[in-house]
Amino acid sequence: MSSMLSSALRNLPVSSAWAAGAFTRSLSCSSPFQAAAQPKTKKTLGKTGVKNVVVVEGVRIPFLQSGTTYADLMPHDLARAALQGLLTRTSVPRDVVDYIVYGTVIQEVKTSNVAREAALGAGFSDKTPAHTVTMACISSNQAMTTGVGMIAAGQCDVVVAGGVELMSDVPIRHSRKMRKTMLTLNRAKTLGQKLSLISKIRPDYFAPELPAVAEFSTSETMGHSADRLAAAFGISRLEQDEYALRSHSLAKKAQDEGLLQDVVPFKVPGKDTVTKDNGIRPSSLEQMGKLKPAFVKPYGTVTAANSSFLTDGASAMLIMSEEKALAMGYKPKAYLRDFVYVSQDPKDQLLLGPTYATPKVLEKAGLTLSDIDVFEFHEAFAILANLKAMDSDWFAQNYMGRKAKVGAPPLDKFNTWGGSLSLGHPFGATGCRLVITAAHRLKKEGGQYGLVAACAAGGQGHAMIVELYPQ
Prior knowledge:
Blueprint: H1 2-9, H2 16-29, E1 53-60, E2 64-65, H3 75-90, E3 99-103, H4 114-121, E4 130-133, H5 139-152, E5 158-165, H6 176-187, H7 191-199, H8 222-232, H9 237-256, E6 266-267, E7 273-274, H10 285-288, E8 311-321, H11 322-327, E9 334-343, H12 353-365, E10 374-377, H13 383-390, H14 393-399, H15 420-423, H16 430-445, E11 449-456, E12 460-468
Parallel strand pairs: 3-4, 3-5, 10-11
Antiparallel strand pairs: 1-8, 1-9, 2-8, 5-8, 6-7, 9-12, 11-12
EC number: 2.3.1.155, 2.3.1.16
Pathway: Lipid metabolism; fatty acid beta-oxidation
Subcellular location: Endoplasmic reticulum; Mitochondrion inner membrane; Mitochondrion outer membrane
C-alpha cells in the first residue's frame, strides 16, 4: 500500500504555505480569556429512551517531560494526585462514586490495576470497584466510554474515568534466558542443582530487554510510520515544522492566558508544587530545521521538534447521568454523545485512526463536518497525514469505501489551545484532556458541538461527539 499511496498521492497539491497560512490564521483566531461567547442554537443530540451522560468536571496534573519532576514517583502516585485534584475541585463525596476506570499503556508490574491502587490512595472506599483498561494512546478514551456505557445501561450513576502514564520509570526485564534460568533456579532443591543451573549462565543472559515504543506485529515505531505517511502524502519537513511551531505557540498563548483550566497543581513529595506543563517551548523554524531526522535516517522528515516528547502525567474526569448531576446540584460542562472505535492496517495505516473514525461518528450523530464548532485531535504523530487523507477523494474511494472525502477540519477551529506536540502526551491520559478541552473551548468560543479524535498503536482510533451543556 505504501508504494500505491506514494505514486497516487505524490501529485496532490502540497505547499508549505498551507501550513504557514494555517499557523498564522490559527494564531489570529484564538480568542483571549474573557466571558464565554453565546453558543449557537442547534438541535440537541439526545435520543429518546437513552440516558443523557454528562461531564461534570475534568482535571489533569501538569504534563511533564519524562525524566523531570515526576521521575522518582510511581504511576499510582500520579493517578492519585489527579483523583485528589478532581475531588478538591468538585467536592463530590467519595462514597457517591459507583465505579472508577483508568487507562494506562505501559503497566507498572507492582500496581497492574493502577485504578484500584490510586483510588485507595486517594481515599475512596474499599467498597468502590475499580479496574484498568489499555488501548494504547486511546486508553483513557476507552475508560471514559466504559463509564458512559455503565451509566447508559443503568448500572451506575457516577463514574470517575481517567488515565495515567509514567515514562520516567518503565519496566526493564531480564532477558528471557535469564528469566527462565531464575525461575528454574527457584525450584531447584539441592545445592548441586542450583550450582549446575548457575554454571549455565552466559554473558548474553545479562542483556536487558528494554521496552520499545514499537508495534509488536510489525516491529515498527510510530515515528517510522509517520515518516512513511509523510512521504506518501507529500508532506514536507517544513510543513511538519510549521505545524509543530503552531502547536507550541498556541499552547503557550493558552497557558499564559489561563485557558488551560483543567490543570490542577500537584505538590510532589520532597519537591516544589508543579503548576504547569513544562514541554511547551515555542522555538523558531531556523532552530527546528537544524535537527536531524529521528527515525528514518538520513532522509526522514520526522524529528524531535515536530513529534511529541515522552511524557509523564495523569487525568481524571467525573461522569454522571444528567439526572444525578442535577440532583446533586452540579452544572454539567457537556454531554458525551456518540462515539466510535475503528481499526485499520497496523502497518501502512497505523496512525490514520482519526481519518477513519471522523466520518463514522459524524454519520452516527447525524452531523456534517460543517456542524462541528471545535475540533480536538491527538497530535503525537502524523496529524498532517490525517488532514491530507481526510481531504483526499482518492483515499476515501480507494481505502475507505466512500464515494467522496469527508474534508479536512478548518484550522481556525482545530486544536487552537495547542495539542499533544506541545502539551505532551502521557499515553494513557491524553483522551480525557481532549474531551475536557473540547468542552471548555465550546463554552469559551460559543459553539455547541465538538469532535474529539485520536489514533492509537495497533492501527486503531477513536472519535466522539461532545455537546455543550445548555448555559
